[in-house]
């Protein structure tokens, strides 16, 4: 490793350090900054020219005396040490241990800035993943290799839902559970402790790699954390042939850190002050998931983001929706009614669901049951709106049945406890219990064979 050391720091602002007259420095190189107390801070080159180099300092630039600052360019990218021992460990956004255990010692080190998969090497995501949550498994199924985000908002239980998915996710016909890479950005100490205790008490912590950035940690560290997590996921999936589930929370904190750094750099802002390259930056992260031809392993990505002001048209959820294959939307109204998980059925969808359900994956009636539940619930919501205008007493007997279905659907199908792990068979049987409150002739999305086999009034 060759290194170059300079004492020409010219300015420090917002976690960014400018060093003048430093030629031949590569974008993305690691940097060590030694301050006036002799302490070392870590950095990464984010802009380079012969006139000056711009460095993002992960520990921040506060109390940095420029005249006494030495900057050492290491001529190597930011890397992470990889070995099977990363499972069960907790790291920060720089890949350093947060669990008071020794660092990983390995000859294998990889740059966190790996390229997205070659499209020609990809294979189509398929194979149903059972999360044990009926609203996901039954209506918005997750398949292996998919990117399926959770759109939440402040005060909603997305952390509890993410922890439940981590505990319960598995392939129904495979005895092996997913290895999990969990990346938390900008979380409170209470949330970080919640995740750690949840995983430890359920016995899955030994199969989880955690990367945690606290709310009071440097924001720029959030820019490397998801890349650290995905590099670890790629190692587990394609070196060790594991199925890997990557859960990231909260991508809104990542985007806000990106905006903060972009503003300090002087980049031209776009929508709501976020940089114009927010889309490509998010895509660079999300597209590192998927499946590769002739490889057993896979990476399935579930990013969690909180929508500012509950606005689904905000740039972060809006751009995420373009890149990913659907979304699970949480409802404040259902949450206020005490329903967990408060999944808002109408705007939620999984675009790859059709490729992971049915006879060869779940059960032959699954696609039709899902369509029928959507149709009945949509009609029931229209009826509920009508009742709020004219009163429930003015409704017809048929419309009252739809109202009863909506209440039963939300309280029996949507609602379940945090420790309730429903199999896909249990979810589909519960769906038929609800469908059986209607006469067979009212069910137009399921076929006669399925009605004869599963409809309670026809059995």
Count of separate structural domains:
3
Structural class by SSE content: alpha/beta
Query: Could you name the CATH topology of the largest domain?
Result: Rossmann fold
Radius of gyration: 25 Å
Relative helix content:
25-40%
Q: Class of the largest domain, according to the CATH hierarchy?
A: Alpha Beta
Any idea what the shape is?
A: elongated
Note the main attributes of this structure.
ATPase_F1/V1/A1_a/bsu_N, 459 residues, elongated, 7-stranded antiparallel beta sheet, 32% helix, Thrombin, subunit H, ion transport, 3 domains
SSE blueprint:
Blueprint: E1 4-6, E2 9-13, E3 16-20, E4 29-34, E5 40-48, E6 52-57, E7 70-77, E8 79-81, E9 90-91, E10 109-111, E11 122-123, E12 126-129, H1 134-137, E13 142-144, E14 150-152, H2 158-168, E15 179-187, H3 189-201, E16 208-214, H4 221-238, E17 243-249, H5 251-265, H6 278-286, E18 290-292, E19 298-306, H7 315-323, E20 326-329, H8 332-336, E21 349-350, H9 366-390, H10 397-414, H11 424-435, H12 448-454
Parallel strand pairs: 9-16, 14-19, 14-20, 15-16, 15-17, 17-19
Antiparallel strand pairs: 1-7, 2-3, 3-6, 4-5, 4-7, 5-6, 8-10, 11-18, 12-13, 18-19, 20-21
Domain ATPase F1/V1/A1 complex alpha/beta subunit nucleotide-binding: 132-350
Family: Belongs to the ATPase alpha/beta chains family. T3SS ATPase subfamily.
Domain ATPase F1/V1/A1 complex alpha/beta subunit N-terminal: 14-72
Describe the protein's architecture and organization.
Strands 9, 11, 14, 15, 16, 17, 18, 19, 20 and 21 form a 10-stranded mixed beta sheet that branches. A 7-stranded antiparallel beta sheet has the order 1-7-4-5-6-3-2, covered by helices on one side. The chain has helices at residues 134-137, 158-168, 189-201, 221-238, 251-265, 278-286, 315-323, 332-336, 366-390, 397-414, 424-435, 448-454; strands spanning 4-6, 9-13, 16-20, 29-34, 40-48, 52-57, 70-77, 79-81, 90-91, 109-111, 122-123, 126-129, 142-144, 150-152, 179-187, 208-214, 243-249, 290-292, 298-306, 326-329, 349-350. The chain has 3 domains: 5-76, Beta Barrel (Thrombin, subunit H), CATH 2.40.10.170; 80-355, Rossmann fold; 365-454, no CATH class. The protein starts with a strand and ends in a 5-residue tail after the last helix. The chain is of the alpha/beta class. It has 12 helices and 21 strands. A hairpin with a 2-residue loop joins strand 2 and strand 3. Helix 2 (158-168) runs parallel beside helix 3, helix 6 crosses helix 7 (315-323) and helix 10 (397-414) packs antiparallel against helix 11 (424-435). Residues 132-350 form the ATPase F1/V1/A1 complex alpha/beta subunit nucleotide-binding domain. It comes from Candidatus Thiodiazotropha endoloripes. Produces ATP from ADP in the presence of a proton gradient across the membrane. The V-type beta chain is a regulatory subunit. Residues 14-72 form the ATPase F1/V1/A1 complex alpha/beta subunit N-terminal domain.
